[in-house]
Amino acid sequence: MITSLRFAATGLAALSLTAACTQPADGDAASPAAGADTQAEFWAALSTHCGKAYAGQLTSEDEADADFVGKAMVMQVRECSDTRIAIPFHIETEPGVWDRSRTWLITKTDAGLRLKHDHRHEDGEEDAVTMYGGDTANAGTASRQEFPVDAESIALFERPEFEGAYCASIVNTWSVEVDPAGSETPTFAYTLTRPIRMARDKGDDGSCEARHMGRTFRVEFDLANEVEAPPAAWGQV
Questions:
Q1: Which pLDDT value is given to residue 35?
Q2: Has residue 30 got a pLDDT over 60?
Q3: Torsion (CA) 73, 144, 179, 54 in degrees, nearest 10
Protein backbone atom coordinates (compact mmCIF):
# COMPACT_ATOMS: atom_id res chain seq x y z
CA MET A 1 0.00 0.00 0.00
CA ILE A 2 2.83 2.35 0.87
CA THR A 3 4.29 2.06 -2.63
CA SER A 4 1.20 3.80 -3.98
CA LEU A 5 1.88 6.76 -1.71
CA ARG A 6 4.39 8.36 -4.06
CA PHE A 7 6.07 11.36 -2.55
CA ALA A 8 5.36 13.03 -5.84
CA ALA A 9 1.65 12.38 -5.42
CA THR A 10 1.57 13.14 -1.74
CA GLY A 11 3.17 16.44 -2.32
CA LEU A 12 5.82 18.88 -1.25
CA ALA A 13 7.13 22.12 -2.82
CA ALA A 14 9.85 24.44 -1.81
CA LEU A 15 10.71 25.66 1.62
CA SER A 16 11.91 29.27 1.49
CA LEU A 17 15.66 29.44 1.03
CA THR A 18 16.84 32.78 2.32
CA ALA A 19 20.51 32.14 1.61
CA ALA A 20 20.19 30.28 -1.68
CA CYS A 21 22.84 32.32 -3.44
CA THR A 22 25.75 34.26 -2.07
CA GLN A 23 25.61 37.85 -3.32
CA PRO A 24 28.86 39.72 -3.94
CA ALA A 25 29.38 43.13 -2.40
CA ASP A 26 28.27 45.03 -5.50
CA GLY A 27 24.88 43.26 -5.45
CA ASP A 28 25.38 41.33 -8.69
CA ALA A 29 24.21 37.72 -8.86
CA ALA A 30 26.57 35.04 -7.61
CA SER A 31 28.90 33.63 -10.23
CA PRO A 32 28.54 30.04 -11.54
CA ALA A 33 31.88 29.27 -9.90
CA ALA A 34 30.49 30.27 -6.50
CA GLY A 35 27.54 27.95 -7.00
CA ALA A 36 29.80 25.12 -8.05
CA ASP A 37 31.87 25.59 -4.91
CA THR A 38 28.77 25.53 -2.68
CA GLN A 39 27.41 22.42 -4.33
CA ALA A 40 30.82 20.75 -4.14
CA GLU A 41 30.76 21.35 -0.39
CA PHE A 42 27.27 19.84 -0.18
CA TRP A 43 28.43 16.82 -2.19
CA ALA A 44 31.47 16.40 0.04
CA ALA A 45 29.32 16.59 3.19
CA LEU A 46 26.97 13.90 1.89
CA SER A 47 29.89 11.74 0.80
CA THR A 48 31.29 11.64 4.34
CA HIS A 49 28.37 9.29 5.15
CA CYS A 50 28.98 6.89 2.27
CA GLY A 51 28.24 3.30 3.26
CA LYS A 52 26.56 4.30 6.51
CA ALA A 53 22.90 3.89 7.52
CA TYR A 54 20.87 5.98 9.94
CA ALA A 55 17.47 5.82 11.63
CA GLY A 56 14.93 8.59 11.22
CA GLN A 57 11.32 9.60 11.57
CA LEU A 58 8.56 11.73 10.13
CA THR A 59 8.75 15.26 11.57
CA SER A 60 6.02 17.02 9.57
CA GLU A 61 2.40 16.96 10.71
CA ASP A 62 0.34 16.89 7.53
CA GLU A 63 -2.82 14.82 7.99
CA ALA A 64 -2.18 13.14 4.64
CA ASP A 65 0.82 11.35 6.17
CA ALA A 66 -1.02 9.60 8.98
CA ASP A 67 0.25 6.22 7.74
CA PHE A 68 3.85 7.34 8.32
CA VAL A 69 3.43 8.54 11.90
CA GLY A 70 5.52 6.45 14.30
CA LYS A 71 6.92 4.22 11.56
CA ALA A 72 10.56 3.16 11.77
CA MET A 73 12.64 4.60 8.93
CA VAL A 74 16.20 3.98 7.76
CA MET A 75 18.23 5.70 5.04
CA GLN A 76 21.60 4.59 3.76
CA VAL A 77 24.13 6.46 1.67
CA ARG A 78 24.71 3.22 -0.15
CA GLU A 79 26.43 4.14 -3.40
CA CYS A 80 28.92 6.98 -3.93
CA SER A 81 30.94 7.99 -6.96
CA ASP A 82 32.27 11.26 -8.34
CA THR A 83 28.99 11.85 -10.20
CA ARG A 84 26.24 9.89 -8.41
CA ILE A 85 25.06 9.18 -4.86
CA ALA A 86 22.27 6.66 -4.24
CA ILE A 87 20.31 6.83 -0.98
CA PRO A 88 17.74 4.05 -0.39
CA PHE A 89 14.90 5.02 1.98
CA HIS A 90 13.26 2.15 3.91
CA ILE A 91 9.99 2.29 5.88
CA GLU A 92 8.72 -0.37 8.29
CA THR A 93 5.04 -0.61 7.34
CA GLU A 94 4.24 -3.09 10.10
CA PRO A 95 6.41 -4.98 12.61
CA GLY A 96 9.09 -6.83 10.69
CA VAL A 97 7.75 -5.79 7.27
CA TRP A 98 9.71 -3.18 5.32
CA ASP A 99 8.85 -1.20 2.22
CA ARG A 100 12.14 -0.94 0.28
CA SER A 101 10.66 0.62 -2.86
CA ARG A 102 12.36 4.04 -2.74
CA THR A 103 15.84 5.27 -3.65
CA TRP A 104 16.84 8.93 -3.84
CA LEU A 105 19.39 9.49 -6.63
CA ILE A 106 21.52 12.64 -6.59
CA THR A 107 23.74 13.23 -9.61
CA LYS A 108 25.94 15.98 -10.95
CA THR A 109 24.99 17.81 -14.15
CA ASP A 110 26.74 20.48 -16.19
CA ALA A 111 24.50 23.08 -14.52
CA GLY A 112 24.38 21.82 -10.92
CA LEU A 113 22.79 18.88 -9.10
CA ARG A 114 19.80 16.67 -9.91
CA LEU A 115 17.50 14.68 -7.62
CA LYS A 116 15.47 11.76 -8.98
CA HIS A 117 13.21 9.27 -7.21
CA ASP A 118 13.70 5.65 -8.27
CA HIS A 119 10.58 3.69 -7.28
CA ARG A 120 10.44 -0.10 -7.70
CA HIS A 121 8.18 -3.00 -6.91
CA GLU A 122 9.41 -5.89 -4.77
CA ASP A 123 10.31 -7.87 -7.89
CA GLY A 124 12.56 -5.02 -9.01
CA GLU A 125 10.29 -3.79 -11.79
CA GLU A 126 9.89 -0.03 -12.11
CA ASP A 127 6.77 1.58 -10.68
CA ALA A 128 4.54 3.46 -13.13
CA VAL A 129 5.54 6.69 -11.35
CA THR A 130 9.32 6.71 -11.11
CA MET A 131 12.43 8.75 -11.93
CA TYR A 132 10.70 12.05 -11.25
CA GLY A 133 12.44 15.00 -9.60
CA GLY A 134 14.27 18.14 -10.64
CA ASP A 135 17.49 20.12 -10.95
CA THR A 136 18.90 22.81 -8.71
CA ALA A 137 17.99 26.33 -9.86
CA ASN A 138 20.50 28.18 -7.68
CA ALA A 139 23.67 27.65 -5.67
CA GLY A 140 21.92 26.53 -2.51
CA THR A 141 24.14 26.18 0.52
CA ALA A 142 26.79 23.73 1.67
CA SER A 143 24.16 22.03 3.84
CA ARG A 144 20.96 22.40 1.79
CA GLN A 145 20.01 21.97 -1.86
CA GLU A 146 16.60 22.50 -3.42
CA PHE A 147 15.18 20.72 -6.49
CA PRO A 148 12.12 22.24 -8.24
CA VAL A 149 10.10 19.81 -10.36
CA ASP A 150 11.41 19.51 -13.93
CA ALA A 151 9.54 19.41 -17.23
CA GLU A 152 10.08 15.67 -17.66
CA SER A 153 8.42 14.99 -14.31
CA ILE A 154 5.51 17.32 -15.04
CA ALA A 155 4.88 15.43 -18.27
CA LEU A 156 4.92 12.17 -16.29
CA PHE A 157 2.44 13.47 -13.68
CA GLU A 158 0.10 14.72 -16.41
CA ARG A 159 -0.09 11.47 -18.38
CA PRO A 160 -3.73 10.77 -19.34
CA GLU A 161 -3.64 7.23 -17.95
CA PHE A 162 -3.22 8.64 -14.42
CA GLU A 163 -6.55 10.49 -14.79
CA GLY A 164 -5.33 13.52 -12.85
CA ALA A 165 -4.19 11.56 -9.79
CA TYR A 166 -0.82 13.34 -9.74
CA CYS A 167 -1.86 16.82 -10.84
CA ALA A 168 -0.89 18.29 -7.45
CA SER A 169 2.68 17.16 -8.00
CA ILE A 170 3.41 19.46 -10.94
CA VAL A 171 4.38 22.27 -8.53
CA ASN A 172 6.51 20.12 -6.19
CA THR A 173 9.91 21.14 -4.90
CA TRP A 174 12.13 18.73 -2.99
CA SER A 175 15.02 19.63 -0.73
CA VAL A 176 17.85 17.65 0.84
CA GLU A 177 19.80 18.83 3.89
CA VAL A 178 22.92 17.20 5.29
CA ASP A 179 25.65 17.89 7.84
CA PRO A 180 29.09 16.31 7.41
CA ALA A 181 30.20 13.48 9.65
CA GLY A 182 31.75 14.80 12.83
CA SER A 183 29.41 17.78 13.17
CA GLU A 184 28.07 18.49 16.63
CA THR A 185 24.48 17.39 15.91
CA PRO A 186 24.53 16.11 12.31
CA THR A 187 21.19 15.63 10.57
CA PHE A 188 19.97 14.49 7.17
CA ALA A 189 16.56 15.75 6.10
CA TYR A 190 14.39 15.15 3.03
CA THR A 191 11.52 17.56 2.50
CA LEU A 192 8.83 17.76 -0.14
CA THR A 193 6.64 20.86 -0.12
CA ARG A 194 3.94 22.40 -2.27
CA PRO A 195 2.94 26.06 -1.91
CA ILE A 196 -0.58 26.99 -0.88
CA ARG A 197 -2.57 28.44 -3.79
CA MET A 198 -0.24 26.86 -6.35
CA ALA A 199 -1.33 23.23 -6.19
CA ARG A 200 -3.08 21.58 -9.08
CA ASP A 201 -6.06 19.31 -9.46
CA LYS A 202 -7.84 17.56 -12.29
CA GLY A 203 -10.19 19.75 -14.32
CA ASP A 204 -13.49 18.63 -15.81
CA ASP A 205 -11.72 17.96 -19.10
CA GLY A 206 -9.00 15.87 -17.44
CA SER A 207 -6.40 18.64 -17.52
CA CYS A 208 -4.56 19.96 -14.47
CA GLU A 209 -5.82 23.30 -13.21
CA ALA A 210 -5.08 25.55 -10.24
CA ARG A 211 -6.57 24.77 -6.86
CA HIS A 212 -5.90 26.17 -3.38
CA MET A 213 -3.99 23.49 -1.56
CA GLY A 214 -0.67 23.10 0.25
CA ARG A 215 1.48 20.17 1.25
CA THR A 216 4.51 19.36 3.41
CA PHE A 217 6.32 16.08 4.02
CA ARG A 218 9.58 15.95 5.97
CA VAL A 219 11.69 13.16 7.42
CA GLU A 220 14.84 13.63 9.49
CA PHE A 221 17.66 11.22 10.30
CA ASP A 222 20.16 11.29 13.17
CA LEU A 223 23.62 11.16 11.60
CA ALA A 224 25.36 10.95 14.95
CA ASN A 225 24.27 7.35 15.51
CA GLU A 226 24.94 4.80 12.80
CA VAL A 227 22.63 1.76 12.56
CA GLU A 228 23.00 -1.63 10.88
CA ALA A 229 22.88 -1.38 7.10
CA PRO A 230 19.57 -2.64 5.67
CA PRO A 231 19.23 -4.98 2.68
CA ALA A 232 19.40 -3.40 -0.75
CA ALA A 233 16.37 -1.45 -1.93
CA TRP A 234 14.13 -3.29 -4.37
CA GLY A 235 15.72 -3.37 -7.80
CA GLN A 236 19.09 -2.14 -6.48
CA VAL A 237 22.31 -4.04 -5.81
A1: 62
A2: no
A3: 10
Write the single-letter amino acid at 6. R
- Measured from the Cβ of residue 48, the count of other Cβ atoms closer than 10 Å reads 17
Least confident residue range of 52-61, 164-173, 209-218: 209-218
Cα–Cα distance list, 170 to 149, 185, 233 (Å): 7, 34, 26
The rounded distance, in Å, linking the Cα atoms of 52 and 77 is 6
Other residues' Cβ atoms within 10 Å of the Cβ of residue 178:
26
Instruction: Convert the pLDDT of each residue in 45-55 to its tens digit.
Output: 999 999 999 99
Instruction: Give the closest residue to 88 by CA, choosing from 79, 76, 106, 98.
Output: 76
12 secondary structure, DSSP code: -
> Per the confidence metrics, is the pTM higher than 0.85?
no
Please state the rounded mean pLDDT for residues 29-41: 68
- Per the prediction, the chain carries an average pLDDT of 85
CB neighbour list of residue 160: distance below 8 Å, 6 or more residues apart: 206
DSSP state string for 86-123:
EEEEEEEEETTEEEEEEEEEEEE-SSSEEEEEEEB-TT
> pLDDT (tens digit, 9 = 90+) per residue, 93-111?
999 999 999 999 999 999 9
CB-side neighbour CA atoms (13 Å) of 161: 3
Give the CA distances from residue 37 to residues 42, 178, 181, in Å, rounded to whole numbers and listed in that order: 9, 16, 19
> Measured between alpha carbons, how far is 31 from 29 in angstroms, rounded to an integer?
6
Three-class SS state of 167: helix
